[in-house]
Amino acid sequence: MSFEDIDQVMELAHQLGYPNSSSEIKNRFELIHDHPDYALFVAKTSRVVGFIQINLEPVTLLISTRADVAALVVDEQQCGQGIGKRLLKQAEEWAHEKSIPLVRIRSNVKREDTRRFYLREGYELSKIANFFTKKI
Question: In percent, how much of the chain has pLDDT > 70?
Answer without folding.
Answer: 100
